Amino acid sequence: MKLRVGTRRSKLALAQAGEVRALLEGMGFEAELVPIVTSGDRGVAASSDPAGVKGLFVAEIVEALRRGDVDLAVHSAKDLPSEDPDDVTVGAVPHRAAPFDVLVTRTGDELPAGAVVGTSSLRRRAQLLRFHPELRVEALRGNVDTRLAKLEEGRADGIVVAAAGLARLGIAPPFAAPIPLEEMVPAPGQGALAVQVRERDDPVAEIVRRLDHRRSRLAFEAERAVVKRLRGGCALPLGAYAELRDDGVRLLAVVIRPDGSDLVWAQAEASTPELVAVEVGDLLVAGGAGEILADVRGAGEEP
């Protein structure tokens, strides 16, 4: 049985799908990658609501899965909307890579006041401005290779990227420093892969289920559930990080204004991802997170 694996065409997406292919082949199944161009890859604009960005990188792949053009689909978990589309489900979350962000610089020296840090993420920009107001944060778009090239060209003094993306591409910049969790809460699902299958495709679902990693799955479900509770999205200034503990799932989440001026955070532990997401979500809303997110949506902030 040959399994067709749907994926975006980007270098990072192909590397991620290649991880899943290797796992499948390790279990004795033949697998081939089927690259698909998405609206996001073509540069189609999202709606004025930043939460709308999520669908740009997954919609065409989901439709190919529904049509039967592919047997499963691999996504970066942080790109997924907070709810599964009809007839499609996340069949597995393989072992999660490091979910944290890193600061890459040209020299490794501490950045002086006024140094420019490049990022196109509202979440990263907001947290940088909150904890390092002496820095200038400017938009810097492109894939990992492009952003690293712009750094070397002097377009910025530093850039913030996901540790998992560097690792999956086999890139090891000489000056890359992990950003502490207390200064940079990652995007929900960052570092995790989501393997989608058709709900009624039992033979494929059974194969894919064997790729599921319990700790990674529970963390993914908790982070995704708090996004749903807050009606958030991957382009909003919302960070979440969950991990499995002895007594349940611990979840930390933050919502912050893009200029770093207001930050609401909450942390809790509960027996299931759903329960901890409810508790953290309610704490965030009580602290004013809903107003911050509503203001960002109303302003049509660019991701």
Any overview of this molecule?
With 303 residues, the protein is of the alpha/beta class. It folds into three domains: 2-95 and 192-212, D-Maltodextrin-Binding Protein, domain 2 (3-Layer(aba) Sandwich); 101-178, D-Maltodextrin-Binding Protein, domain 2; 228-299, Double Stranded RNA Binding Domain. The protein has helices spanning 11-26, 59-67, 122-131, 144-152, 163-169, 202-209, 214-230, 273-286, 289-299, and strands at 2-8, 30-36, 72-76, 88-92, 101-105, 116-118, 136-138, 158-162, 176-178, 193-198, 238-245, 248-256, 263-270. The strands form three sheets. A five-stranded mixed beta sheet has the order 2-1-3-10-4, sandwiched between helices. It has a five-stranded mixed beta sheet with strand order 7-6-8-5-9, sandwiched between helices. The longest helix is centred in the C-terminal third of the chain and has 17 residues, at 214-230. It is globular and about 60 Å long. Residues 44-51 have low confidence and may be disordered.
Identify the notable features of this structure and list them briefly:
3 domains; D-Maltodextrin-Binding Protein, domain 2; five-stranded mixed sheet; 303 residues; 9 helices; Double Stranded RNA Binding Domain; single chain
